[in-house]
Amino acid sequence: MKIKPFLILIPLLVVWGSKAQNNKFQVGIGYQRTWLLDNQASPLKYQSSEKTFLLGYTHTGNTGKFDARLNGAWGNFFPTGFYNRKMYDPGYNPDGTPKSDSGLILGTLYNARIDIGYAWKVNSGYSVIDNKKLESRNYAGASLSNQLFYSDNIVRNAWMNSSSLNAEFQHDAQYNARHTINIKISIPIFARNTRLPYHNSVSSPDGSSHIQTIFKQGSRMAWFGNFQSIRLEAGYDYAVNKMFGIGIHYFGQWLHYNYEKPISLFQNNIGITASIK
Amino acid sequence: MKRSITLLALLAILAQPFFSCQKLLIGNTVKNTPTANFDEMWKGYHQWYGMFSVRQVNWDSLYIVYRPMVNDQMSNTELYGILCRLITPLNDIHAFLQPTSDGLPRFESSDFFRINRIQRDFSIDLVRSKYIPSLVTVDSSFHYGITPDNIGYIHFGEFGLPLSFYKQQLNVIMESLKDTKGIIIDIRNHAGGDDEVSRYIAGLFAVEEKLYMTVRKRNGVDPGCFTSPESWFVKPSGNSSYVKPVVLLTTRWTSSAGETFTWAMNTQSQVTQMGDTTAGGFTDVISRELPNGWLYFVGVGDYRNALGNSEEGIGVSPKKYIINTREDIEEGNDKVLEAAMASF
């Protein structure tokens, strides 16, 4: 019997069966900017302009909330100030003269993140404003996440996979049962990070694929002392009716990791969402 | 509803600082000045180049010589001149500078590539027109056929496509060549590629596992810091091994993965390397950038043959030496191919 799917299934079954349940499915699209400095590959700061999508599921119960989310993004990726860099043809004409054609050096950044977490309600509050109810709840919990960054740039920057166990703190405020604001902070405690080895190349003597080789040669355990990935999420949802809602959400991330050479990343994402309960 | 709008506005205001503080959170980048560009390129080779020792280059002394020539008032063209002079002593097919501005051309540190520019001693079009009219083009750098004398012929110009592509194609090709009396493998214009492709293809001609190279790569900022050596073995691959005579054709333009392929093939007793010595550049290469956006390329490995000797800057010598002149090809005579065909 495979252990991992079973472990994911247990919390799903628990939260699905609990009373006073509130299940929400969410889809979203957005726009993201990423800035990155990967000293292992380049001294240049890179930036991107990405389209993003989101698929999410949240179950809110009396004692806590379960959250599962898949985010994906892709977009142009280039050194700041060098958007239109040219690669001149290094070849020669048959008469020995250098060729004069050129092409733009283009690149794309891809990133994806999956998060699964559970947070327990630690306290809640209640007040009445203008005869309408304002409820607030605070949660503390943990999540497992995996995020992958990959670029097809010639210098192979931004290649990184991070699987982490994160501490999470959330605050939800709901006004008049229609307006909901939520804020979440997530900080990894431990992680298994994978980057290219120091020499920034991939080859294996034993016939392993490139992906297997990168994970074999480039993976290390990390902790908060050498790996920081602070994520902030803030969102507003408006319940159009009991079943359907719309919202606007912000996601920001700062990441820094020391191996093999330091990589720093800063991301901002704004998106609109639609949810079904 | 007013509260909703207020809350949204507050969210937007709170988010603003996050969009503008990327400079603080990302850290400092190197300034784009001629001196910083020189220092970055010197440091890049210092921290990643794998062959100072085997090529007997004192990289520190080159900094002492050339750094004083750089100043922040110089033009890109002047900086380009100094950077070219810096890497010239490496004389390495994998060490070159690729400017991305000012129309400046690629500078090859390899004396051979810089002086010769274009290969004149091989033409696949001549092979097709005079020797193998039935030559099949699998890809612009991959051809095969059978001569009128029932000698198989496979040409590889690179190993840059995915391994799965070569596996799929060669399953069919080797089946079609199984009844030939021998095969000529022509890598005279091989530009390199993936060493794992080299190993797989060499395995099509192997009957037993044999060591053909050891590899170590840079693993730290100190020029003496390398990974532990990895041993690479060629072993039988594909559906069956081709054990009839094989002639491997090489020239000075056979480089990189073409040379590791030559090492692997030379472990097999039925293979005879014919032609000219190869280029002498075996390692994996990475590209790095300068603050001005230019690219430069660095060989990160120290590759050794089965005996533990480096052939960087030397190349793999053939068992039978024969070359074409430019005039031979222009007059329609591929004497190297003719000699290979006559050897069966």
How are the elements arranged and paired?
The complex is a heterodimer of chains A (277) and B (344).
Chain A: H1 3-17, E1 22-38, E2 45-60, E3 64-79, E4 86-88, E5 102-104, E6 108-129, E7 132-151, E8 160-175, E9 179-195, H2 210-218, E10 219-223, E11 227-239, E12 244-257, E13 263-276
Antiparallel strand pairs in A: 1-2, 1-13, 2-3, 3-6, 4-5, 6-7, 7-8, 8-9, 9-10, 9-11, 11-12, 12-13
Chain B: H1 2-20, H2 22-26, H3 34-48, H4 59-66, H5 76-87, E1 96-98, E2 107-108, H6 111-116, H7 124-131, E3 136-139, E4 142-146, E5 152-156, H8 163-176, E6 183-186, H9 195-203, E7 210-217, E8 230-234, E9 246-250, H10 257-265, E10 271-275, E11 285-289, E12 295-299, E13 301-305, E14 320-321, H11 326-330, H12 335-342
Helix pairs in contact in B: 3-5, 8-9, 9-10
Write up what this structure looks like.
The complex is a heterodimer of chains A (277) and B (344). With 277 residues, chain A is mainly beta. Chain A has one domain (3-276): OPCA outer membrane adhesin/invasin (Lipocalin). Chain A has two helices and 13 strands; from the N terminus they run αβββββββββαββββ. Chain A has helices at residues 3-17, 210-218; strands at residues 22-38, 45-60, 64-79, 86-88, 102-104, 108-129, 132-151, 160-175, 179-195, 219-223, 227-239, 244-257, 263-276. In chain A, the strands form two sheets. Chain A has a ten-stranded antiparallel β-barrel. Chain A has a two-stranded antiparallel ribbon with strand order 4-5. In chain A, a hairpin with a 2-residue loop joins strand 6 (108-129) and strand 7. The radius of gyration of chain A is 22 Å and the shape is elongated. Chain B is of the alpha/beta class and 344 residues long. Chain B folds into two domains: 34-115, no CATH class; 124-280 and 315-342, 2-enoyl-CoA Hydratase, Chain A, domain 1. In chain B, 34% of the residues lie in helices and 18% in strands. Chain B contains twelve helices and 14 strands. In chain B, strands 3-4-5-6-9-10-14 form a seven-stranded mixed β-sheet, covered by helices on one side. In chain B, strand 3 (136-139) and strand 4 (142-146) form a beta hairpin. In chain B, helix 9 runs parallel beside helix 10 (257-265). The mean pLDDT of chain B is 93.
